[in-house]
Write a structure and sequence with these properties.
By secondary structure, the chain is of the alpha/beta class. The chain has 17 helices and 13 strands. The structure holds the ligand CSCCC(=O)C(=O)COP(=O)(O)O.
């Protein structure tokens, strides 16, 4: 069994000797120095020494400045760090993240390291089981206007979203503990609206309430939310750290799916030269830490992530990973019904179509916004072009949505 975690980096430098650089990383981030060590000490330290596995240099064809880079793979012995994500990240990219043009692209953790992580408790299949929906993409709606609103207002907004036939409703990530809509009362009010809507729609619904507060109170807040009836949680993972998600997701008393919000991710992944690659940041590490659903920008909407990077996030959430359950991909931001065929083309059926403005901004109102998405999903999964579907009687909501936002072709 492999006893190392392998980090892949991309390093840009017009002149560097990348072999030398790789060796200095492998030694510097493990035993500190090597050649100076006496032979007896070397024998003792060998098991701690990082190893350069490969260095692939890409010379720009035209010699253009700023385009020469190398992909460097280094194996770090598991013996050097404890079985937690902070220890792993500090080892492979702590000081190094501040040392020139270098980006952490990927991490392959060992079976032994992964064994400390149960991963998503529900995962994609578990979320589908809770909702009883197995044959189509799910639809999630986002509360939009939340700050400064009282419980009655949020309950009314929730009810309208639920009537639109959505499968999940999530809080806006900027809704924190506040006197107008305290956590437990908000959960009770929204779940009451969910029950009322279910009487009309016959549809089950998950409400991902935003879990916030100081880290020391998060687990208690989560338990309170669950006791009040919350059947899902939203969590701003990157502001707290992956280890906090890991703790929450393996807590047996917090027995509901957790949706990871990507707030702050833009500080890490967009630069080609610095930070952490999107598929690692929003894919592999979120899944390892236990996210059941992961939100991230799509290639089509208002906050755009390049398509290849986006599909790499999807793959990291869905490909085999040490036997962990898969996490639901939720490409988001600026999504409207006219984008549904593109989303399904790239993501298939195992995706959550997620919208805030694209639901609340519908010309016929919030509930119609949900209906328009459901009609678009039905058309796209049946291979019917949206324009054709919009002409059908009963699909007036879709027609109005297309008039408002249009259809984006590939
Ligand atoms: C950048 S991914 C997170 C998307 C999100 O949380 C959101 O509120 C998107 O809202 P929109 O009105 O753009 O659908």
């Amino acid at each position: 069994m492999s006893q190392v975690c392998i980090a892949t980096y991309r390093s840009y430098d017009d002149k560097a000797d990348f072999d030398k650089k790789a060796l200095s990383i492998a030694v510097g981030l493990t035993v500190g120095s090597w050649t100076e060590l006496p032979e007896a000490k070397k024998a003792e330290m060998e098991k701690h020494l990082g190893k350069v596995l490969s260095v692939e240099v890409h010379e720009p064809a035209n010699g253009a400045a700023g385009e020469r880079y190398a992909d460097i793979r280094i194996a770090y012995p598991d013996i050097n760090f404890s079985r937690d994500i902070p220890a792993l990240l500090v080892t492979v990219f702590g000081k190094l993240s501040m040392d020139g043009c270098i980006k952490l692209i990927d991490l392959d953790v060992s079976e032994d390291f992964a064994s400390a992580f149960p991963g998503p408790r529900f995962g994609l299949g578990g979320v589908r089981d809770l909702l009883g929906v197995h044959d189509r993409p799910l639809l999630m709606s986002i509360f939009k206007s939340v700050v400064g609103h009282d419980l009655a207002n949020l309950q009314e907004q929730f009810y309208k979203q639920a009537l639109g036939g959505v499968d999940l409703i999530k809080d806006d990530e900027i809704l924190f503990e506040n006197p107008l809509t305290p956590l437990e009362q908000r959960v009770e009010a929204c779940m009451e609206a969910a029950r009322k809507a279910q009487e009309e729609t016959g549809q089950k619904l998950l409400y991902a309430v935003n879990l916030t507060g100081p880290t020391s109170q998060l687990a208690a807040n989560a338990r309170k939310a669950v006791a009040a009836g919350a059947n899902a949680l939203l969590f701003n993972v990157l502001s707290y750290g992956y280890d906090v998600l890991h703790e929450l997701s393996k807590d047996p008393e917090i027995n509901v799916p957790i949706a990871a919000h990507p707030a702050l991710a833009g500080a890490f992944y967009p630069s080609p030269h610095y930070g952490i690659g999107a598929s690692l940041l929003l894919g592999k590490l979120m899944r390892l830490a236990g996210a059941d659903l992961v939100l991230f920008p799509s290639p089509y909407g208002s906050v755009v992530m390049p398509k290849a990077e986006n599909l790499a996030v999807k793959d990291a959430l869905l490909s085999p990973l040490h036997g962990l359950k898969t996490s639901f991909p939720v490409p988001s931001a600026g999504i409207h019904p006219g984008l549904v065929p593109l989303i399904l083309k790239d993501f298939g059926t195992d995706v959550v179509v997620n919208a805030g403005g694209g639901i609340h901004g519908h010309p016929m109102g919030t509930a119609a916004g949900g209906h328009a998405f459901r009609q678009a999903i039905k058309a796209a999964t049946s291979g019917i072009p949206l324009r054709e579907a919009a002409e059908a009687s009963g699909n007036e909501a879709l027609q109005a949505a297309i008039q408002a936002w249009g259809i984006k072709e590939a």
